[in-house]
Design brief:
The structure is a homodimer of 180-residue chains.
Chain A (H helix, E strand, L loop, with lengths): L2 H7 L14 H11 L11 E6 L2 H11 L15 E7 L4 H9 L4 H19 L3 E5 L4 H8 L6 E9 L16 E2 L5
Antiparallel strand pairs in A: 1-2, 2-4, 3-4
Helix pairs in contact in A: 2-5, 3-6
Chain lengths: 180, 180
């Protein structure tokens, strides 16, 4: 499908078909495409942990949901979680981050996350990007070293949610002159 | 084109056809699609300044290139610059950023930048994402308030560069078990 259709039909899916696994070849393709994403100085400052084991998914889901708040219970349903860990950038991007006071790896992780979601959409799969979770507990569950950050968890699976209309007001975000 | 082709053929273009402007309807389409990008709590914490005026492009290009280092001289050639300014998020995303010690707007800006580049590619246009520039000088040139940050400048135009092979080693970035 063309990019406009892809962008318009990609949504945050918060309900998945538990009975339908993600085909390995689709998962491979999504990851392969995602990692063509650009990054500052081509540093690709991340690793992606693919979680498919049922027991581990339950542990990840416990870290990303909050019983008390009734938040994100759908994370247990997703047959795949893609957990994005921040890794050190290369020398030039790290120097750039310090000199320019911008943490380029976080921008780069936003870019790769969007590639994952769009590549998944092309394969008929739904995704939801989660940034709110118990990070230290999740690091322990996944064996991620203490000196790393887990930035995002992306749920992946066949969505059972109907397509929603996008609630965005695009052009108020665009300034077409230099009068900010 | 399908997303795989789009991702594989999108590259950082550092040479543009000065004589070929970007059609207004293409620019509108790119911005409209870009702003369907997801963001934490749907905050869309950014504004996009569209720079097309020749005098202003020269000023922007002076901020993004470095004569001494021979860096980024191509920025003068691009007929359009899309400058992404960080704006305050909404209440929930701001609380989330503080509690979880993650600056969600930077991730969100990565996502919207990738949508811009991919939408442009679909229209046959080239882009380059720049994060290294004289931010204070650029803010002054564009009338951006002092209390804002300019995160990225994206050059947009018809590229004169041939397609390059991607130098990525994707699968070393993927960890398929829980043994990090």
């Amino acid at each position: 499908m063309d990019f406009e259709t892809l962008a318009l039909t990609r949504q945050s899916d918060r309900a998945y078909d538990r009975t339908r696994p993600v085909e390995p070849e689709k998962l491979d393709k999504i990851l392969r495409i995602a990692l063509t994403a650009p990054s500052a100085c081509n540093a690709q400052p991340y690793k992606i942990i693919v979680v498919q084991d049922e027991k581990l998914i339950n542990e990840v889901a416990d870290c990303t949901s909050a019983k008390a708040l009734g938040m994100n219970h759908f994370t247990k349903q997703a047959p795949v979680h893609l957990v994005i860990v921040e890794e050190p950038g290369n020398l030039t991007s790290s120097i750039g981050s310090v000199i320019k006071d911008k943490h380029f790896p976080w921008i780069d992780i936003g870019i790769v996350a969007s590639y994952i979601c769009l590549a998944a959409r092309e394969e008929g799969l739904g995704t939801c990007i989660l940034g709110w979770f118990q990070e230290e507990r999740l690091k322990k569950a996944l064996g991620v070293p203490k000196n790393r950050r887990i930035l995002l968890d992306i749920t992946l699976g066949y969505s059972t949610q109907p397509l929603r209309e996008k609630k965005r007001k695009p052009f108020e975000k665009v300034v077409t002159t230099n009068k900010y």
